[in-house]
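Project outcomes to date are best conveyed with an example. Our students and postdoctoral researchers have been running inverse folding experiments weekly, and each run begins with a structure described purely in tokens. The record below, which covers 318 residues, was selected by the lab manager from last quarter's runs and is presented without edits.
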């Protein structure tokens, strides 16, 4: 249920993203018909978006949480786990294709400096090693900022790693296209707000953070057994340091299902009561259709096992 006031509902929605214009964060927003109609507000850091949502500066924010090549975005995961209280409203998958952007007329052979966010250059290691082995790396806060800085340099020796839209926005050319190491690269983004849980769709995901009450042998196993006993599939299990002392970890989990599903609700209730402290990050529509199929297969396997066992139980005493 939305807690928005009538005044808020009568004005344009404000959605924050990692800026400047031309980032993948902005690109994924523009692909969503409803979000593209909002007032888009750019922030210099990904974590700034989360704080802006939590503090009421904007209504919603879009942030990346996981990349197919580099894994989870730890700064976002940690901020959601420890620093802000926001709820995920939906997830979105965005294909990630990276290009070498240069000044008009410049060539790859001229490039001696490359502006990039570290995660982008990591995704292009093989191409960069083969074509620009001696290049000097300059860090940027986003791929769009990298393109903006490269354009402002007006220097044929300076290049940037970014998407094709950033090249158009900042007047650069693609010296090499789609240079990422893995062609199926994509990033998972989430839309967050201060409150509200979307209604179940039958194709949902729930995200939580689990804090162990005691780091004892078998404690993680006992947590995972809560899900296994109910045939709830986990699509993500990530350990993160709690920032309190060395060796203390919490776990971020994505599970298939919605908090409104009785079996998921029962699992979270038991987990909270008996095993660990839990922070709820949201139940929201999943971006893929795999969740229902996996859950159905799990249930089918359980039914077959139950029938197999019952066949022998029926023979007791006969």
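After processing, the design step wrote out the following sequence:
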């Amino acid at each position: 249920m939305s807690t928005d006031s009538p005044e808020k509902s009568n004005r344009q929605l404000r959605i924050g993203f990692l800026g400047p214009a031309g980032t993948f964060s902005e690109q994924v927003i523009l692909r969503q018909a409803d979000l593209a109609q909002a007032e888009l507000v750019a922030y210099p850091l990904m974590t700034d978006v989360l704080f802006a949502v939590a503090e009421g500066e904007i209504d919603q924010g879009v942030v990346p949480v996981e990349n197919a090549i580099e894994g989870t975005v730890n700064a976002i995961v940690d901020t959601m786990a420890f620093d802000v209280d926001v709820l995920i409203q939906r997830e979105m998958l965005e294909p990630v294709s990276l290009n070498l952007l240069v000044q008009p007329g410049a060539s790859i052979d001229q490039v001696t400096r490359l502006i990039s966010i570290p995660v982008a250059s990591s995704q292009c290691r093989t191409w960069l090693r083969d074509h620009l082995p001696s290049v000097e790396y300059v860090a940027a806060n986003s791929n769009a900022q990298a393109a903006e800085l490269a354009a402002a340099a007006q220097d044929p020796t300076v290049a940037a790693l970014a998407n094709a839209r950033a090249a158009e926005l900042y007047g650069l050319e693609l010296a090499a296209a789609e240079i990422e190491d893995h062609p199926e690269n994509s990033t998972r983004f989430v839309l967050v707000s201060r409150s509200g849980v979307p209604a179940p769709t039958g194709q949902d995901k729930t995200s939580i953070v689990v804090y162990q009450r005691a780091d004892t042998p078998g404690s993680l196993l006992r947590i995972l057994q809560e899900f296994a006993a109910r045939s709830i599939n986990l699509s993500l299990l990530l350990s993160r340091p709690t920032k309190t002392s060395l060796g203390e970890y919490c776990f971020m989990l994505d599970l298939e299902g919605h908090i409104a599903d009785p079996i998921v609700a029962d699992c979270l209730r038991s987990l909270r009561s008996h095993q660990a402290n839990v922070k709820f990050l949201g139940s929201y529509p999943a971006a893929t259709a795999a969740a229902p199929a996996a859950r159905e297969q799990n249930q089918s396997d359980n039914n077959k096992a139950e029938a197999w066992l019952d066949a022998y139980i029926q023979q007791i005493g006969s």
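Residues 11-95+186-196 form a domain with the D-Maltodextrin-Binding Protein; domain 2 fold (CATH 3.40.190.10). The longest strand covers residues 276-285. The training component of this project remains on track.
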